[in-house]
Specification:
iron, S-adenosyl-L-methionine, TIM Barrel, 209 residues, globular, metal-binding
């Protein structure tokens, strides 16, 4: 990436765009809702079970003008889900301001590991042990989505639930490769601790992106 382009990326005027697609939101509160996904490259959180490792290296994804991303997005849906990678690696202010100017709903899927930027109608916070969320994002999160890979993740989920705001909706979601083992544990846990709800990656069952 040359310096001029790097500067535009640093300002959020361009973003490393990995892919964009119109599909059904499979997870969490908006599951079943048609939405346009914008996947931004770049993440150094390093989850060993990450299912989008090809997103990690931002240099592999073309810097793309935010105007172009918005122009594409508005053709497909009123609901735009910005995901990654870790979108908060970058300044989301310009992208979201432009999406809002078009009357679109802005949703983000984030680990919360970096400064919260952007104007969001819905924040889905999915904390990771390796890089904990910032205090600000705990206060702003609309849903907390905890990925359950092993038993210790229930402890971590409770620790994180104690930090979010009181209106935040709490979800436990099986990590896909461990689903056969952890789904019965999650079901049992939610019945004993009904402040939690179960979230499934329904798009994977539907075989859609
Ligand atoms: S935060 Fe998300 S994109 Fe980054 S490594 Fe973890 S699961 Fe993958």
């Amino acid at each position: 990436m040359n310096l001029e382009i790097q500067e535009l990326v640093n300002k959020g005027e361009m973003l490393p765009l990995m892919e964009e697609f119109y599909t059904i939101q499979g997870e969490g509160y908006f599951k079943g809702t048609a939405a346009y996904f914008v996947r931004i490259g770049g993440c150094d959180v390093g989850c060993h079970w990450c299912d989008v490792k090809e997103s990690w290296n931002a240099n592999l994804h073309p810097p793309t003008e935010t105007d172009k991303i918005v122009a594409n997005a508005k053709k497909y849906s009123d609901t735009i889900v910005v995901t990654g990678g870790e979108p908060l690696t970058w300044d989301m202010t310009l992208l979201t301001t432009k999406l809002k100017a078009e009357g679109l709903q802005t949703h983000i899927e984030t680990s919360g590991a970096y400064k919260l930027t952007g104007v969001w109608d819905w924040i889905c916070l999915s904390p990771k042990k390796m890089k904990l969320p910032t205090e600000e994002v705990y206060a702003e999160a609309d849903e907390l989505k905890m990925i359950i890979y092993n038993k210790d993740d229930f402890r971590f989920a409770e620790e994180q639930a104690a930090k979010v705001n009181k209106d935040c909706i709490l979800y436990l979601q099986p990590e896909w490769s461990k689903r056969d083992k952890v789904v019965p544990e999650i079901v049992d846990y939610v019945m004993k601790n009904p402040k939690w709800k179960v979230s499934l990656q329904t798009h994977k069952y539907l075989n859609i992106p």
